[in-house]
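agent> step 3/5: call structure_predict on target 'Spermidine/putrescine ABC transporter permease' (Aureimonas endophytica).
agent> reason: downstream docking stage needs a structural representation; sequence fetched in step 2, passing through unchanged.
tool.input:
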Amino acid sequence: MRTIARLTRRLLLALMLAYFALPLLTTLVFSLSQGRQGYGLSAYAALIRRADLLEPLLLSIALAAATIALVLVVLLPAMIAMHLLAPRLKGLFEAIAVLPFVVPAIALVAGLTALVPGPGWLVGSPAFLALPCFVLALPYAYRAIDVGLGPLDLPQLRLAAASLGAGPVRTILWVVLPNLGPALVNAALLTFTVVLGEFTVANILLFPTFPVALARIGRSQPDVAAALSIVSFLLTWAALFGALRAGRLAAPRAANRDGVSP
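tool.output (status=ok):
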C-alpha cells in the first residue's frame, strides 16, 4: 500500500509539473522558432531593438513603486494598529483583504469609472492606476505582513518600550519595523509582481502599461511577444526567489539578535 501511495503522489506531482511546464516550454519553443531557418534568438534580439517597450516598462515599474508606497503608508500602519489596539478585528481585516479575490477586476474598473468626474490631477493620469493596483495587491501584501506580525507580541513590546521611555512613534520605528524586514520585502516583491502583470484595469482605462504593450505586440509579432513573455516570467520568478532568499537570510540575523542560535 505504501508503494502504491508513493507512486500515486509521484504521478500527481508529475502531472502538476507537466501542467505548468508544458505551456512555458511551448512558448519558449515558439519564441525560438524561425520558420524554415530552424531556431534562433532573432525574437529576443528584436526585443532589444524595440524602443517602444521602454516607456511601458518604466510606467509599470513606476506604478509598482507607487503601489508599494501605498502598501507601506496605508496598509502597514493599519495592520500595526489593528494588532496593537483591536486584535479582535483581525477577522474583519482578513475578510476585507480577500475581497479582491471575490470581486473581478472588470467589476473594479466599473466602480472606478464612477470617479471619472473626480479631481483632474488624479483621474486621467497614470497615478490613478495605483489605486486599483493597490486593491488587487491587497491580499498578497496583507498576508505577507501578517506573517511577520503574527510571531510578535506587539502589546508586550509596546509596554517594554514605554518602560524605557519610548513613545508610540519611536516604538514602531525602532522596535516593530526592524522585526518586519523580511515580511516587508516579501510584501513589496509580491506587490511588484502583481502590478507588473496587471492587464485588465490598465487596458480598459487605456493606460499603456507593460502587459498592454505585450498584448499589442502579440497582434503583429507573436514570436516577439512570446519571447517577451518568457523574459517577464523569468524576471517574476527572480523577484519571488529574491523574496525567499531575503527571508532566509534575515531569519538567522533575527535569531542572533534575540540571543537564539540558528
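agent> step 4/5: record observation. Residues 52-253 form a domain with the MetI-like fold fold (CATH 1.10.3720.10).
agent> proceeding.
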